[in-house]
Amino acid sequence: MNDISIRKYIVNNFKGDNESEIKEAIDDTIEEGLEEALPGLGVFMEIIWKNIDEDLKNKLLEILKAHLN
């Protein structure tokens, strides 16, 4: 997997999945707490971050900050 981008690999894994399937994958990943799944969540976060406005970014940062204390 040296020449395959992790981002591309993860995106390709979920192409064609509907919102319910993606939600289930996220919920399962969080529930199981698997360390190897963290890069996938990071890719999802990157996609979200690149596609939301500043107001939503600020809201997400508030939520994150509140749970890091």
Overview of this protein structure:
The chain has one domain (6-68). Helices cover 74% and strands 0% of the residues. The chain contains 4 helices and no strands. The chain has helices at 6-14, 19-32, 38-50, 54-68. The radius of gyration is 14 Å and the shape is globular. It starts with 5 loop residues before the first helix and ends with a helix. The model has no long low-confidence stretch (mean pLDDT 94).
Topology:
Layout: H1 6-14, H2 19-32, H3 38-50, H4 54-68
Task: Give a quick rundown of the structure.
The chain is an all-alpha fold and 69 residues long. The protein is 74% helix and 0% strand.
Helix/strand structural class:
mainly alpha
Order of helices and strands: HHHH
Percent strand equals under 5%
Q: What count of structural domains?
A: 1
Radius of gyration: 14 Å
Count of runs of 4 or more consecutive helical residues: 4
Largest sheet, strands/sense/barrel: none
What's the N-to-C terminus distance? Answer: 37 Å
Spans of at least 5 consecutive residues whose pLDDT stays below 50 are none
Overall pLDDT: 94
